[in-house]
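Quick start: read one record
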Amino acid sequence: MNTAERVRLVLTGEHEVRTSEGVVLRFFLARGPLAAPDTVWERATDAAFQHAYELALFDPQGLDAQLLLPNPHRMQLALDALMGPGSFFWSDGADVSVVLTTNGKAPEECGFGLATAQASASARADGDADAGGAA
């Protein structure tokens, strides 16, 4: 079995995926800084979501230099209360952010527009900086 065949067993290439439990997963991607007026949540396929998620694990400058270094700016927040169990937001800390909803709704329908995402990311970054300084 080649890599493409294995990926097809897991990823559907769809924006909306229904699980065996009836949960509807939806994938959204924002390219650009969250504060930029032209940045929007766009529907993404599960494959595009997975690819962006994996790239965000590594430092973008390191990738440019062909080095695999952890991304110190990456953040992930659980959004279970807003968008269903297992929902989350993550950002590479610069230009790519993603939301996975498990209730079949878009982020804005759940009260998680880009301004909310930016505020959540800023609060998380401030909290991490505070915690780091106190340790």
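The chain has five helices and six strands.
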